[in-house]
Inverse folding.
């Protein structure tokens, strides 16, 4: 079951400039940054209540995030929803014939599992499901 919005991801060509706007102008704090080599992306996380703004900067011109940036420009990339049972949610989506980008959950460097739903099945929005604490 979906329990909350985990984060809203925004693609940017310049992580520092974007983080400056969110921090300096809006008063948010960059809680942490990380480099995800498997996805060729630098990420900054800025908490807002129980959710985060996640800034994504491609580090390779061939990454998925770079291709998105080239095609669509900077802006909202995806909405991430927290799931309390990722396997059950993926099974429900599969049974409803919703196209998935990620058929099976991927585990990130922190041990969290996630999967992506294709925008073709969501009315045009890329949705990430992120498994929360059980």
């Amino acid at each position: 079951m979906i329990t909350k919005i985990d984060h809203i991801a925004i693609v940017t060509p310049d992580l520092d400039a974007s983080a400056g706007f969110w921090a300096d102008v809006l008063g948010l704090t960059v809680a942490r940054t990380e480099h995800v080599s498997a996805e060729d992306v630098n990420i900054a996380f800025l908490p807002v209540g129980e959710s985060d703004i996640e800034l994504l900067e491609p580090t390779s011109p061939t990454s998925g995030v770079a291709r998105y940036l080239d095609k669509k420009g900077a802006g909202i990339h995806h909405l991430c929803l927290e799931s309390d049972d990722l396997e059950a949610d993926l099974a429900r989506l599969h049974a409803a014939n919703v196209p998935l980008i990620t058929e099976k959950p991927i585990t990130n460097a922190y041990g969290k599992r996630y999967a992506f739903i294709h925008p073709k099945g969501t009315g045009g929005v890329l949705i990430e499901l992120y498994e929360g604490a059980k």
Q: What stands out?
A: The domain at 2-131 is CATH 3.10.180.10 (2,3-Dihydroxybiphenyl 1,2-Dioxygenase; domain 1). Residues 15-25 form the longest helix (11 residues).
